[in-house]
Amino acid sequence: MAILSYLTIVGLIVALVMHNQNKTELGAYHLRQSLGLIITAIAVGIVFLIVGMIPIVNLILIILAPLVGVGFLVLFVLGLVSAVKGEQKPLPLVGASYQSWLANAFV
Q1: Nearest CA to 90 among 33, 36, 24, 49?
Q2: How far apart are CA 62 and CA 52, in angstroms?
Q3: pTM (predicted TM-score)
Q4: What do you get for the CA distance between the two ends of the chain, in Å?
Q5: What pLDDT, on a 0 to 100 scale, did the predictor assign at position 75?
Q6: Number of neighbouring beta carbons within 10 Å of residue 58
Q7: Would the CA dihedral through 49, 50, 51, 55 be positive or negative?
């Protein structure tokens, strides 16, 4: 479940269904991390789309967007590696926040 939660939104949904049948602390932890990361990525994407309509800012986003995308990819890989190892290690910068914001999710 922990590993599946990092493999696209479909993987997150499958992991959620599996978790509801067999709840584990490790699964819940990584479901919260993955869900928080996906929500953040979608929110950042929406902000970039809206702000990107401003001509001058659009030029900055052309450079910034790929860097932010690579940053999200790195966070997903770090989460996946943590899940593969069976660790409950929070993602850098945002993981602790996800655990507190989504504390009641997947219990």
Answers
A1: 33
A2: 9
A3: 0.82
A4: 14
A5: 93
A6: 13
A7: positive
**Which residue range forms the structural domain that includes residue 86?**
4-99
Q: List the helix and strand counts (H, then E) for the chain.
A: 4, 0
Helix (H, G, I), strand (E, B) or coil at 21: helix
19-73 pLDDT, tens digit per residue, is 888 888 888 888 888 889 999 999 999 999 998 888 888 888 888 999 999 999 9
Residue that the structure tokens 């869900």 belong to: 35
The answer to whether position 95 is within a domain reads yes
CA separation for the pair 3, 84 (Å, rounded): 6
Q: Is residue 105 part of a domain?
A: no
Q: Domains in the chain: how many in total?
A: 1
Dist. CA 32–CA 38, nearest whole Å: 10
Residues 69 and 56: their CA atoms lie apart, in Å, by 20
Residue type, 61: L
